[in-house]
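PT: before anyone asks, these are the final sequences, not the draft ones from last week. 330 residues across everything. Please model them as a single complex and drop the result in this thread when it's through.
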Amino acid sequence: MGDIYQAMENTGFAFWVRESGSLWSYPLILSFHAIGMGMLVGFNWALDLRLLGVAPQVPLMAMERYLPWAWWGFWLNAISGVILTFADATTKMTSWVFGVKMSLIVLAVIVLIQIKKQVFVKHTSDGKVLAAISIALWAFAITAGRLMAYIGPVSGLKGVTN
Amino acid sequence: MWPIINGLSKWLMTTQLSHDMAGGWKWGWATCETLHFVGLCLLLGSIGVLDLRMLGFAKHIPPGAIHKFVPWGVAGFAINLITGSLFFIGAPFQYVKNIAFLFKLIFILIAGLNIMYFYIGGVRKQIENLGPEDTPPLGARVVSWVSIIAWFGVIYWGRMLPFVGNAF
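LR: through. Structure below.
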């Protein structure tokens, strides 16, 4: 497996992202990753808060209109995240904290899909329990993401800022 | 101006709080970074739902109702103001000589003035009585665009701190 991660890290694009020193490479992709996080978690949290009773005058069914914006954030981060992973593959792919972060994101996305299904499509749930779980999962995912710079293997590669 | 900033920064570094943030409290920096991201999401989401409504999305929602999310955005900002101040107190010279920090402050100022215009300039009143399906006036749409661009700018320049300057 180590060879594969090495190969990922040594692709021309990954090398450029990491070591070009350009503000348009690693730094810009990292800021996209922060903006995507703000959109995905931000709109998901706004929906969760509404489900839990905040802004009760807002028609619940209309909150569905904000979901595509959360998904825009998701895809922005899926793409920027894959690039950031390639740029630092030998560290990221062997970090258990990274694994925890990815697992938490998968769970949080499953919960979001369940909210969509149970609250907006089938109307079988008020979504309160799902909303509470959703808020916690995203908070843990953010925490795990940040702790990648502190726990487990931390990259020493040139150009990688943790 | 510089001697004052320099002197204040040096004084900050003599405080116990600064020592705590700069390593005395082992997990202090990482904890504040995590909370800073939580605050970012809370702010962007809570303000974002209002901005998007004022741009004409989610038209079934009365703008006055979605405005109820603003206190949560303020809470996000408060979290980030506190944690951000703790970073500054912990390592002031990472920021006072960092052009990215100056740009970040400018974008926060733009966002703040924009919010003032929203409340004092009458835009809040204009949208208050809009019903569902109503298209918001031009002023509200301009405020929304400025808000989105300003907060994206704040995030961008915050993320640039370690690359343009010397902050970690």
